[in-house]
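seq as requested:
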Amino acid sequence: MKKKQTFSPEKRDRTILLLALLLMVSIVPVGAISPAMDLNVTDISPNSGAGGDLFANEPNTITATVKNEGITDIGAFTVRFDVAGTEYTADVDSLAADTSTAVMITDATLRTGGDSVIVTVTADTDGQVEETSEPYNSLTTTLTVYNNGYKGKRWTDGDDQDTVASYDGHYNVTWSAGNTAYNNKLWTEQTYNWSAEDLPVPEGATVVNARLYQAWTYNKMGTDPTFTMSFNGDVVQPAENYQDIKGFGSYSFPYGMYVYDVTAAFDTAGNVMTITPEADNDYGIYGAYLVVVYEDPETAPRAIWLNEEFDMIYSYTTYSVNDTEATVFAPFTGVVTDEVEKATAVTILGGAGDENKSAFIFNGQEYEGFWTDYLRDPQVGFSVYDVTDALTDGDNEAAMQSRMVENKGDNMYAMTTILMAQSADVDLNVTAITPNSAAGNDLFANEPNTVSATVKNNGTTDAGAFTVIIDVAGTQYTEEVSGLAAHASTTVTVADPSIRTGGDSVTVTATADTAVAVEESDETNNALTKTLTVYNNGYKGKRWTDGDDQDTVASYDGHYNVTWSAGNTAYNNKLWTEQTYNWSAEDLPVPEGATVVNARLYQAWTYNKMGTDPTFTMSFNGDVVQPAENYQDIKGFGSYSFPYGMYVYDVTAAFDTTGNVMTITPEADNDYGIYGAYLVVVYEDPETAPRAIWLNEEFDMIYSYTTYSVNDTEATVFAPFTGVVKDGVEKATAVTILGGAGDENKSAFIFNGQEYEGFWTDYLRDPQVGFSVYDVTDALTDGDNEAAMQSRMVENKGDNMYAMTTILVVETPDTTLQANFTATPSYGTAPLTVRFTDLSVGATTWAWDFENDGIIDATTQNVSHTYGTVGHYSVNLTVSDGNDYDTKIRPEYISVTAPYSDDSGDDDAVPASITSRNTGTLLTSQEGKTLRTTTVIAKDGIASLNIGINTYALDSSDNPLSEVTITPQADLSGKSPGTTFSFTGKAYECTPSGAQFSPAITMTFSFTEEEWNALSGKTPSLWYFDKAGNKWEEIPVTINAAERTVTAQITHFSLFALFASATKEISPESTKQPSDIPIPTQAPVNTPEPSVTPGSETTQPTPTATPGFGVLLGGFGLLLTALATRIRKP
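struct tokens:
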């Protein structure tokens, strides 16, 4: 029998190590073999991305696609294009393996629609590239030249929109689409009407030409439409058939228009048409329209030209059509301009509804396009242009153009153009007087104003030049008018520089043709008088409306600081109900030992339609308070002018540094809104740096807006600060508080002329107020300073906002001698070496007493000291500046515990528990699970926290806690859970606020015998303060009289306080449970492991790299490390 072979663990591990090394060597990648090169022309495309065909009467681009079929990169080579015998070349710098490149040339030859063009493209014509296969370098194709129907017919050998009828004499023309409408394919018989109002023909006039136009679209029938047209009961036949078609590529179907002469059948009282389709029609129809020319001896003399054609145009890069080509021309010949007073062009188009994507041009003079006249129902439009200034003797030309915007213009259909030249009854009349037209329409105080007069020519003949005089309160202004067409109006505007006062009345008279230059049919109606009122414009800063700047209401100089917050307040619209809001201690932090010298509560209200000031009731910390200030502003002119304002309450006496509550109760049926309230608190603190503080207030509504006659300069609120001393200033900060200032880039802050970003980034959506803080140190000056809040106009308007409070804080260095220091670390095991860092102000000598035993241990500024004995140590630092002394004592500042003992021998082991004073550091896993027990004892030694191992300790955002703090609170400002409870003097703030624990941690109160005896006859109870609900909640406790302790299990941090109530004697050990308050719990947070779906991604190898090699190598490195460790420690 063969003996079984065995290996020692050392030999087995060395064998595995050797095999791993061999496997690593075996996976080293081998270099790829260089492959060959092969060029191939794979495609020839005319006008690529711009129609994809060759087009007549224009240059064309031709693009060839060349591919490197090989797997080796290619250097420079040449590509030759032969286009019907004309050669072009293009150079290619290089082409990577297995990639293609597009090479394009422009063929300038102008060709005719229908031509065939042979194109051959050859790559590497100069043999610059050594290829494995040279015969496939060329490609030949035959291309057809097309007329591009999206261009005007002048570019496709078609007709312009030519004249079909003209008239000269006492003629006029009218046009209308009646109630016609667009119909899509498979449309059914339709009947439409034109009323006498649609096509007004004066009594006594004679209709000389009535033409009915019916356009059709996208005809897929294969033959022209054969619908039946009936007009006023008679079937009529087309007199003209105009057509157009795309003419290339896909979706190329005919469009067109039939024109019917219905002169004999036209009825001035009204007309009816019925259109009946063939069966299964496969085209759409536009709304029909009528153009009617009539002769009337009572009308002004006119020459009229009527032009027709159906021409489809579409400026579109993708279809190789630019604006110039997408133009339809309507020529007019034999024009005589002598005595012409007015020339009018009328264009009728289908589909021309895209804004800014069309233009009308007359003799080269450009006018706005057709979109504003587009009618949605018939999908046609009638655009009328005054072309008097552009009219010339002889030949004239109108042009309808599709105008490209971001790659494409309007796809539209030019059908009819009319030109009227009217030759020379004038009646001038002032119809309106308007101050600051389109800019408020009222006269405004403290600024120049404009006054406009509207003059109308009620006659049928155009008026020549005349003057208009506008008399404003006795001051006359004269303006010239070059002429005014019949039935037309013009507006004359003058600037009145007089600075007036709000409430003034101003009489204005406007008179037309004061020099009697125009012979009129009625000279008695040329003047109009109106009395105007001067208003203060509330959208301007109050400096422009005889109001107040945002002036200083309080100032401070010394060891002061200021804090502000909106708490959890929110904006409420009209018909709001009673609301209660809170400010926590964290919202308005006031240091322990500081004294609040001014606490001001601000409540703004908006758009008050009550007729009287708001009378809501304001309660602060349970006390009803009255406004100390009432600031207001109002638009002051025009419509929608209602008051806005702000009440300010002095709540200094009622302010509570541990938290504050306000309740606001409205009157019935309130009809105004309220902004979120905010508090500004100034406190004096000997520990803070010296500061000068100015607090400025006002409610000023500003809105830079052309329509309201307000510019940026006027839409500015100023906050002046006087008596500023700049010498020795370390930092100057300005704080602005505004309502509604949330529009990006539409505001600015200015301090002494230096501009800063506006207020939008600090805007709070809930209260709709914002607190913006600016460093104005560089801009600060001695004496008078000025802050400015400005609404900044962008595209006609700025932000409509409300300036309420501005604070200036000027900080100077504290030169008063003051001892201060820190130590790192402040706790640990003996021996503990602590580094003490001096933070004193003004000191020149230092005396350190590390045990506070009266013995000076060191005299250098910064020093280290080693504590060898377990205990809690108070530290004393006394400093001097050569004249005075100051001492800083930190009681029981250093905590030294016994060294941790671990029999495992592992130098890196974590202590199973640690005890700290005031603040404890937690050691947790990534999930927030504690890795040791931590005990934290409050400074007074009474309260402590015990956080056991394997406890989930998370902050309010569910992140692991790093440290916890328990801080005694000396005063609860008289708050208690009820009248039967008295405060024991033991309250503790546990932070960070919102911290949560699962399972619960232990909070213990340990009393001296004297303190415990003081509770005789009373039962202690522990409560925490619910800040959100503004109330106390009781927590179950265990009372151990023998050990003089009160113990509770807590699951979150808050303010905890021990109260006492009269009851029976305390038993040696009892547990007190609240009857109706459940113990809050916090479930542990489970973090799921990341998952990967097998087969969800596949990576292909390339010739030059092995994917995953680095990962494999890293994995083997870990394996080798593990093996080496095992070999070293069997």
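Residues 618 and 624 are 6 Å apart (CA to CA).
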